[in-house]
Protein: Amidohydrolase-related domain-containing protein
Organism: Phytohabitans rumicis
Amino acid sequence: MTLLITGGTVIGPSGAVPADVLVDGETIAAIFAPGAGPAGVETLDATGKYVIPGGIDAHTHMELPFGGTAASDTFDTGTRAAAHGGTTTIIDFAVQRTGEVVQDGLAAWHTKAGGNCHIDYAFHMILGGVDDDSLKAMDQLVADEGVTSFKLFMAYPGVFYSDDGQILRAMQKARDNGAMIMMHAENGIAIDVLIQQALSRGETDPIHHGITRPEALEAEATHRAIALAEVAQDCPLYIVHLSASRALEEVAAARDAGRNVFAETCPQYLYLTLEDQLGAPGFEGAKWVCSTPLRSKHENHHRDLWKGLRSNDLAVVSTDHCPFCFKDQKELGLGDFSKIPNGIGGVEHRVDLVYQGVVDGKLSLERWVETIATTPARMFGLYPRKGVIAPGSDADIVLYDPNGRTRIGVETHHMNMDYSAYEGTRSPARWTPCCPAARSSCPAARTTAPRGAVSTCPVACRATWCDGDAYRKALHRWSLRRRQRGPAAAGLRPGHGRDPGRGGRGDRRGGTRRGAGRPRRAARVAGGVAVPPRRGDVPVPRPGRRQPQGDRVAAVVRARQDRGGRRRRGGPRAGEHRVRRGRAAPAQGRLQRAGGHRGRRVLDPAAAGRRRGHHAVQLPGDGADVDVLQRAGGRQHVRAQAQ
Ligand code: DUC
Ligand code: ZN
Ligand code: ZN
């Protein structure tokens, strides 16, 4: 069954283009110039809306046991809330606690998530104890389980903490097996001293959570993590939940030096402050206890983090979604801030909150989509299956209404929390139900649908971004492996050696990415006739110009006509040249085998356009435009939501 989304403006890495999107089954089949799509198929009117790839939240903690309790969102409630906010994939963290077997931890998280999710999901692995066994397990997870990113903690001594030697060993292992190390960068040993000193002075209020985790100790840990990654021959390093200007400077310096270092921030660090939230009267501030902590409004953290997002020193916005109810959970820390479970819930609001940056002129539309979807897909091996509106990609499509309104608050949100960290930040709006054709995939509908079996879809592409020397070094490794074991063993595909923002250094000072860095490509038309991007009905926000506040998720479309339980698992994708370019490597044979030729209907947009005498627009942004260095053999597995 096919569905044509008409009248919308597709936002891709290279800009906003009015286009119609044809969905075939669960896959984007083709993209047409407005009005040029096939007749006689079901349509979904997206006039006035942005058509964007479903959001990917690369940092969530559903059901995480923490501080004597557990995060209040289950995979059921959390993923339903995510879908309501335009996020269609999460990458959650499975946990190995100190002394546990890594594989057991992963199995436990599969049990929690299996059959309970409303959107697609994948896992990173938290290593709570680095030793010979867990190092071996890293290889196995990369090779067999589709887990290609491992999180370590420089904080939380006695719980998740790894010392420098353990970190170095894990990084060396990651360097060898092609995984990425994600780092919670705070000096937890020093923080614990400050906490004890504060408590002994009787300083027990929530604000002391922030005061005892000073910016200097985040910057120091970030610096140390970067140094250790350098010693581990430039193991790819991804700093999670970066909150502070000085930590950002460390990341920027490493990137300026051509290092393989990336970072994410989260909405709470872009909007909330130590004084206004964490310092709220009485125990109220407990609602905003999270680590890394909120920073002072008397410094320039918000400004610097937005700038980092523009310049790509911050590549991704995730949520670190780790909600706890105020009643009974946050209250565990009454009289002792160190006992307040750490975490803020926000999985439902990330897409909106980052879009607010577009409204405020701090971010371009393209950069919005990159930071919430495209770059996380690239970083964690999901691209181009996810993170882009392109032929062959999963039809995880969000229709976003720039004139809509969402009121964020406990009365309207879907997260399992008894308060909202962003209470009242928006004006009222309502979810617009999507059309009947898409209803089976509408999150609102799925909430009542029975949960079904979960299938696994191996994704062959393990992509990450490298630049400069790091890229060349990795390329060298790739060719070495090719020579040693044949091309399939390398699992690598050479790209063009750019990083995800592709803006280069000048980009850092360039305000928004618009016009910075590499030249933007116009949309191309099958048959070689260029069609410049046209301005549609949808306003394209310009930096510095205030837009009407709002935009809201109008619909999440995941066409699921393949109801018999048979999912399309890859195979050649529409746009054959791109298939060959992006997917023909022997290393990806597994995907091709899995996809086989079952029940697929490949629509070549070029041919389709020619047949009808129309132009079929092919948006830039997948294989041909993207500078991807596919790294060693890991296949990130993404689990499909219940059908
Ligand atoms: N930070 C949080 O705020 N919660 C969970 C774990 C973490 O690192
Ligand atoms: Zn963390
Ligand atoms: Zn986290």
Remarks:
- Residues 61, 66, 184, 290-291, 320, 322, 342-343 surround dihydropyrimidine-2,4(1H,3H)-dione (ligand 1) (CB under 6 Å).
